[in-house]
Structure prediction request, 319 residues.
Amino acid sequence: MEKTDKLTDHAKREYHLTAMTKMTEFIARYRQPSAAIEMQMQLSAQKRMADNQQVIESLFKVILLCGKQGLALRGHRDDHISWEEEHESTNEGNFIEIVRFRAETDQILKNHLQNAPRNARYTSKTIQNELIEIIGKHIQLDILSEVKEAKFYAIIADEVCDASNKEQLSLCLRYIHGSSVKEMFVDFAEVERITGRELASTILRYLTAWGLPLTNLRGQCYDGASNMAGSRSGYSTIVQQQAPMAVYTHCAAHQLNLAVVSACTVQDRRNAESFIGEVARFFKFSAKRQRMLDQTMDLLCPAERSKKLKDACRTRWIQ
Prediction:
């Protein structure tokens, strides 16, 4: 066999063709590294991560908007949500409806909602609760950071039963930040009992967990109940044993309430509340009486004062 025939035969061999393909690919990737498969996969993964971050950011903004405006996130039902262009026009809750509205001008969010797997859309009630918890934790850390900068602080607490009949102890901190005095709610603490020792233990545990030294605690503010203000077993006394500089102050709002109650008999107070309620209902449930009241107030009161008084009355009656 001649050399030419041998070369022609070699060029057709599979191992030669494989070697040529590999060489061509190597030269192409050497001259243009961005075209490599590994690079393409890395760029695709980076874009997917950036898109997911933008989606999460959009959902965070919706949560913040609902929180700022005091809107409940979920409606009566939030399962079986459809993200298709054509869907049943029903109220699916504030969070879902605002996300749907935002997706009209956010193509990345729209593509995610329509194409992402059902278990990776980040819109379920579980994810909503996680986002709320993350935002709440971030706000709490910001408040605690300000308290630590201020160094000295006071604790304000009160307990009440929630809708599920569980005892909740609300914890607020009072401190000076810059040139202003701040009173910020920080957390709720669920307690099993409302004895002075139990409440004091809860407060001390939370302050320690927040990294706030008890030596910097300068004040306590609670109501005047015996479990709070008692000289022996009140938790203001127990806390003061750990923080001697924490002076107890009876809550001014509770003092005012006690003063109002003591200024009149219980029966007189009930009669007054009942009479005011009946007057409010007399005007509230009749448009004709409301117009007559407005006309009378316009005659008896100056225009500006009449307007303010009517607005205040309407607000009170609506509530």
About this structure: The chain has three domains: 39-123, 150-256, 264-318. The chain has 13 helices and five strands.
